[in-house]
């Protein structure tokens, strides 16, 4: 499917009046820096200017391209596919008005025309696709920065919201695909594709329901065997399942069956969007982590919250060795607690954090570290951020700097050092739990 996510040429079908969907997709592709050939197509012809570039609008497609993006009224889509089928490898059908509103025959005709010409279809009723490393933003959703997360979403609107939230969370993406009604290609195809995509480190999947359970299980097991697969399942309740059926025409089915399938395949299920991105952040930094955790904090309360959450998630509070305890006692003020969680107290500075992290990291009883910082006004958060970055440690270090403006500069410095921040002790603990499942 490289012709979708790394295309060298693309044709866009629809209206190129400002504000129209085809116009917005063309604008996203141009402004995103796509350096392949772009062919806008509309029977009325004319020209369109985007970001200082003028394009001739062709009345029809007459040259081969890798992919077509189609945003025209649903009733005209099958005949268009028949017309251009010999010139394209795949089509992204943005147009709605197919099986999701009861037009099952129209959708069947669309698939028949595509199969007749040997082309693949994404959609219909979808929000488009991104191939971020190919600088291809074939959607009207907000653009994102390059990274390792491939987002597969049955819902276009959810996908758009998730991309925007990902930007806020400073997540880097390799790809995005909204597949809508899944008339042809579906979640199973994309799981297999991204499992083998060299730019994808982790896969996030939003699903409401699947049609072919056996095929989905095989694809999920294949993908999860190669990379972390993070799943957010909607339609768990009876009412939610009904809503999912009316949304994309798919059967949500029994949630218990889905949950068992995810576990059996080795996928990681999260409960909400926040979890989707926390898991993605964790896997962007580390492939996996052990279960024995050391908590280092400068504030007792958050340390206790982290400890409670870690234990409730099935992780262990590491038993520090006698050597580690003695080494910590040798330089920490007597008011500090050297039992796990290790409380460095409020005035902990660069040296206290850095040295503690390094000593604890060397302990054979410790698999991973959770470092918490609630800086007092007289200790800049950047100082502690620098300590975390500079500390020599070859084990996963998950960080919780809190809160808000107080740690803004420190969090920025951590980001520049490739370290993601988790804004609460509980979210940091969950990140370690997800890593431990690998």
Explain the overall architecture.
By secondary structure, this protein is an alpha/beta fold. It has 3 domains: 1-124, NAD(P)-binding Rossmann-like Domain (Rossmann fold, 3-Layer(aba) Sandwich), CATH 3.40.50; 141-285, 3-Layer(aba) Sandwich (Rossmann fold); 287-436, 3-Layer(aba) Sandwich (Rossmann fold). 39% of the residues lie in helices and 20% in strands. It has helices at residues 2-5, 21-31, 77-84, 104-117, 156-168, 187-195, 213-224, 238-248, 255-265, 273-285, 300-312, 322-329, 350-361, 381-390, 408-416, 425-436, and strands at residues 9-14, 37-41, 47-50, 53-56, 67-71, 90-93, 120-122, 128-131, 136-139, 146-153, 173-178, 202-207, 229-233, 268-270, 292-297, 316-317, 342-343, 368-373, 397-401.
Strand-residue proportion: 15-25%
* Poorly predicted regions: none
Separation of the first and last Cα atoms: 28 Å
> In the CATH classification, which architecture of the largest domain applies?
3-Layer(aba) Sandwich
Q: What's the level 1 CATH class of the largest domain?
A: Alpha Beta
Q: Could you estimate the helical fraction of the residues in percent?
A: 25-40%
Beta-strand segment tally: 19
What average pLDDT do the residues reach?
A: 93
Tally of discrete structural domains: 3
